[in-house]
Amino acid sequence: MNIKYIVLALTISVAVISSSLAHAESTKMVTDVSGNQVEIPETPQRIAVAWDRGITELVIAAGIRPVAVASTNEFAPFLVKALDNLKGIVNLGSHREINLEKLLSAQPDLIIIQDVNNYGNPELLTLAQNIAPVVQLNSGKGLRLFIKDFGMIFGEKYTKILNTQVDKAVAKMAAVTVDPSSVLVSNGMLLPGTLRLYKDNSNLASQLMAEAGFGRPKSQISGMTEIINDGTEISMENIGLLNGDILFLGKIGSDDELSGITSTDLWKSLPVVKNGLVVNADWRYWNVGGPLAASHIADDFVAGFQLLNK
Which residues 6+ apart lie within 8 Å of 188 measured at CB? Predict the structure, then answer.
């Protein structure tokens, strides 16, 4: 559909939406992470998440079923299951290019997007505001801060609900060994033709490892507290930076695509590989997510440390 037509269609709907909001049983003013003040329903009934799994998962973990979600191709199986295989939920397409017609068809009374100052989409904000009230959240600032911001929008009860779930995952991780600080946990990723290293401020798993008290190889200590939610590319010559007492390794690509790395002598000679202590770390929840992802990361830790403790 022509973008001008979409803008026109959405603009025409403003009067109807504004009227609906005005006649809602109850509304409240909130300030989102961008600093915008937004009038939203006191208890939203039809929430659309026009961003990726990072925000979607927090909504689900809070016990809220959204009416529309995006980037479902990046959902881990547990997330699809939690949404009852997406039955009755509108698929908005990629979070990088939200399908506005479908967003409108979902008839949301609240839309959540990523903070436009942090990897969000300013054009989406402008257009979505013609459909329903829009609040911005920043899923990349670290899970605990993300939960705090979520609670400020939806209610403090959710802060406790979500933090309790994360606390359980952290405790489960810490319990896999007597002294977590004595174990150097490495985290990396294989992609076709390249390697990626995750430092102690790189992703969700790293945040949980830090809370559980695990050590990290020196190459994976950033000395920074700001969460960057991204890995560091390394060359094959620096493959030793991935070594640790145990390696949790994500993979994107088929075995054939990754064989250019895994079939090399450099890879095979890596001590953690030789010792059989490489554990799968699914990027769909190791890198970003909420309490549900944290629970599955904890399960991966249990499985991995069973190998280490043999």
Answer: 195, 196, 197, 198, 231, 242, 247, 248, 249, 250
The 10s digit of each residue's pLDDT in 190-223 is: 999 999 999 999 999 999 999 999 999 999 999 8
Dump pLDDT digits (tens) for 97-116.
999 999 999 999 999 999 99
In degrees to the nearest 10, what's the CA dihedral of 138, 17, 65, 211? 20
The domains found in the chain, sorted by start residue, are: 3-139 (3.40.50.1980), 168-308 (3.40.50.1980)
Rounded to the nearest 10°, the torsion over CA 15, 17, 18, 19 is 80
The C-alpha atoms of residue 81 and residue 265 are separated, in whole angstroms, by 40
